[in-house]
Amino acid sequence: MTDTSDLLEQRAIRAQAAVWVTDLHGPERSAALEADLRRWLAEDPRHTEAFELATDAWQRSGNLPVYLPEEPRLSTPLSSLWRSRKPRRRVGFIGAGAAALALLLAGAFYWLKDPALATGYAEQKTVDLTDGTQVTLNANSRLLVNYTDGVRQVTLTQGEALFSVTKHESRPFVVVVGSRKVIALGTSFEVRREDTAEPAFTVTLIEGRVAIEPLSAPNILPVEPGNAITLLSPGQRLRFATNAPDAVDSPAIDKVTAWQHGQLIFEDTSIRDAANEFNRYGKRRLIVDANVPSSIRVGGVFCIGDPDSFARAMANAYQLRILESTNGIKLTAP
Hints:
By secondary structure, the chain is an alpha+beta fold. Helices cover 31% and strands 30% of the residues.
């Protein structure tokens, strides 16, 4: 049975790791500081274990900031920082609780690995960034975060994300997607990268105002549209494709954001496009055979994680056959 002194020591290790996190996210982070951290991790297996446990906690949580808040830095060298802090400060860290410290460590561990947010198949995640902006990632998505003093920039490299941006007049929020960027100050909008051979994406504005501009344009939200600059009004969506002109329409917002509620809403959608949409959410592929007529259109509300029900509905409605395998479901004509 672990005695009181062992328990306090373990809590102290977690608190000490939290101090490392603070310094790693401070303005004086350096290669030397990171080397000191690696030495600390090597000193005691419990140090490494604390980081591993924190990583698991982060993966289960999905609600940590990308970057942790900075703490006023002392002039004391990092290697002796823990020993020099007053007992009252140590007690404060310990009193924060093992679970909270584990989550703090988890965020630091993830930040060291990759300043990115990512989801896998059938996974969605909501994260609050350090400025209060909330990001909800759809399944199979990846977002790189690069905040600076002048601009809050993120890059959507894959998938789909909904942004609820905290207003900041002097620090614009920029989403880079392919060869374009979306600029906002404080608003709510969704960006989606299409899974196609040629770059394609959509931007749907829910409320507020955004501009879609070339990457070379300044990070300023313009008042009027201009050359290669599109301003959207609430409810509008911009469609961008490499080999087609930009197109603006006004879709039903509940249809666009239905994925947040675990639903897919189709309205006059081709059967192949509907199948591809299901394939964003699961490793078990839904395949429409080449002999299935392209004229078949789909309408209705379906559960994201249930391609089997969709396949059965299509088979019953259009006299198709279902061929199942370990890795997928195929719809084929008789």
